[in-house]
Amino acid sequence: MLFYVAVYIFIFVIAFVNTINKNRKSLVFFLLVFLLICHDGLRWETGTDWDNYFNAFNRCLTHSLENFEVGYVNMMKLVRVFTDEYTIFLLFHAFFVYTLIAYIIWKYSPIPTLSLLFLYAFMLPLLGMSRQYLSLAICIYSVYFIFQRKFIPFLLCIIISFLFHKSSLLFVFAYFLNREYSIRTYQIWIFVAIIMSFSGIVQLIPTDLLLLAFPKEYSSYINTVDISLANKILGIIRKLLWVILALYLLKEKSKPQGFSLFFNLYFVAIIGYLLLNGSLLQIIVARGLIYYSVFEIFVLTYIVAFISKQANQKVYLLLIGIYYIVLLYKNIAFYTIGNYNCFIPYKSCF
After folding, report:
1. pLDDT tens digits for 278-294?
2. How far, CA to CA in Å, does 296 sit from each of 31, 100, 263, 269?
3. What's the CA gap between 262 and 254, in Å, rounded?
């Protein structure tokens, strides 16, 4: 765990200095992107589903991989034509993912290095979900076409991401969120979602009906997760914390360019969480909503950039930094089984 903390603190210090000094240096940003590529690409036996993906890579030229989407299988085959080194594939994979995401961060985030810090904390617990990593990166990149209002290129991105992970179809609704809503609209959605969550109405949906909406390989995930009332309330408070801060920014007459779309995308994740957390559709909370919740890395940077007083900005940065490192520890600890954790220690290929 110390390795991850050290990387996090390193990125945090750079992001902190750049934010306070209002620096936007491309060299520093791209060096951090290079660090993340090496972090993911040079790992060995680290992250979830290591054995499944490692074995699939070794067998992709000789065996049928029916459980993997065709895009991912062909990507493995392409690399295997040139080399059988899995590390080369992981580096290629990481380069593809972080290049796409970094482009959107650099183009739209008001504080790119800070977004990279949040991205690291968000993505690390997903390390090993290789197909969805790729699919997520393509969906994030597709935001460019939402801003340009080009539906066909956007739809093409969704189709390509679908070839890597079927869950990316959930992101097709994102195209219609590039607009402004009233504060009251957001408040009503939150109120209705909380009421429906505590009413248990989602639990009344017949399981057989739910199974029709999911591919066969996901059917085993249709089950209820037992969450205590206290944890449910704490989860709601944690999720709404950034929303409350963002709503102040939405009240401004001259909102930063792009903020409304990023907030709307993130807001979908919040509503989905409020409605489905602890329900039969926990799989959507765990895997489906990441296509929307990832845009927290933009929303928070807009909030920090909006704070005018440098002293207040420093305090917010420290508080957010502490919040994310605690969340990072919690999400990695989730994978602990007995004395084993697939993330700890971090192992490299060297």
Report:
1. 766 777 777 789 999 99
2. 22, 17, 8, 9
3. 16
